[in-house]
Amino acid sequence: MNLPLIANLAAFIVLLVLLAKSGNKNWSLAKKVLLGLATGVLFGLVLHTIYGADSAVLKESISWFNIVGNGYVQLLQMIVMPLVFASILSAVARLHNASSLGKISLLTIGVLLFTTAISALVGVFVTWLFGLNANGLVQGAQETARLAALQSTYMGKVADLSTPQLLLSFVPKNPFADLTGANPTSIISVVIFAAFLGVAALHLLRDDKPKGERVLAAIDVLQAWVMKLVRLIMKLTPYGVMALMTKVVASSNLADIIKLGGFVVASYLGLAIMFAVHALLLSVNGVNPKRFFRKVWPVITFAFTSRSSAATIPLSVEAQTRRLGIPESIASFAASFGATIGQNGCAGLYPTMLAVMVAPTVGINPFDPVWIATLVGIVTLSSAGVAGVGGGATFAALIVLPTLGLPVTLVALLISIEPLIDMGRTALNVNGSMTAGMLTSQWLKQTDKSRLHAEADSEAELAHS
Hints:
Blueprint: H1 3-21, H2 29-51, H3 56-93, H4 100-129, H5 141-154, H6 163-170, H7 175-178, H8 186-207, H9 209-234, H10 237-251, H11 254-259, H12 261-284, H13 289-306, H14 313-323, H15 328-338, H16 344-358, H17 369-382, H18 392-403, H19 409-413, H20 418-443, H21 449-453, H22 458-462
Helix pairs in contact: 1-2, 1-3, 1-10, 2-10, 2-13, 3-8, 3-9, 3-10, 3-15, 4-12, 4-15, 4-16, 4-17, 4-20, 8-9, 12-16, 12-20, 13-14, 13-20, 14-15, 14-20, 15-20, 16-17, 16-18, 16-20, 17-18
């Protein structure tokens, strides 16, 4: 190791230690994550200023930082499937009437898909407003290499499925393979498998009460066990976020960000509009948007910094049940479905903006009403099965663009600014899932009004969750 590399690693380790010892012990997870975020941004700026984005020393340093950053991401990926399985199994097993399962699923998925369709229309609007198109973007050697890597990573998983085939792919045929995340739609398959097991537990309780009670007790133990595992991993979030933000800031190419600044600004305007749409839907259905956002703010903050909808599931469920008064059955379904169906940011806004930008390069008028209707339909249907981890938006774009007969080159050209936009997209995805849970609970008249209207500090309530 050379001296600059050793110095960088020593500074990184010192910052990790200081992060572990700093802050009030009663701080919520959200505050600790924000501290890690700020530390990572500052350290990344220092490294970027000293070495520049393309320095060999910086690249080697980042490869060591990745032990913490990518290691944290892999731990998140490790807990997603056990968490979804245990949460859905427990939620269904606690239902007094298995028939209500259908209503919960239908309403939750309906809201997610409806808001995704609106998100697609917002994507068309902001792209038109900023006059964005792909004509001025040039594909160099670096972009060509990125495109080849993307196609080998994602395109092999993307088949030209018809709608019936897509729906059939949700049905689990090997739940053990789905628990490994073998397919793009594995999360949905695990949800379905867990739901069937939960319904079977209810039937067993009805037909053989002693055995049924033992099964329900085992399910409660399983969920408690998995949640303990989840909380152990979540305690590492500030350190993982610090490492990830250090990498993002230190390796960012300022010229690329400036060149693509219009796309960044348009994306965040679209995200802001969609948050306003969520607020409007809540208001129309008797929920004070200001109160709602104040209560879920720690969850949105966590989603923003972690860039993983799936990893935010435990915080989302706890915020919905403890702070918003949503029953656990609805909260678990909304959080789990929302991590893989109808992601407003990653599967709605982003691929739509790319499609509208690329369309003129192949002679298509992107503002033709028929073409827009087709685009919105494809985006909404293809939003099912987009993984709720980093890269989900890229996966969504690589489904939508070829389906419309559009080239996928633009996906590679925007990779340099992906992390910057992905944080906002993930926050919107998670807020969309909590909005779906809130609306479903309101429509089924199952909201605990005393919890919803309680004015306790949201961060304090979630601090030790």
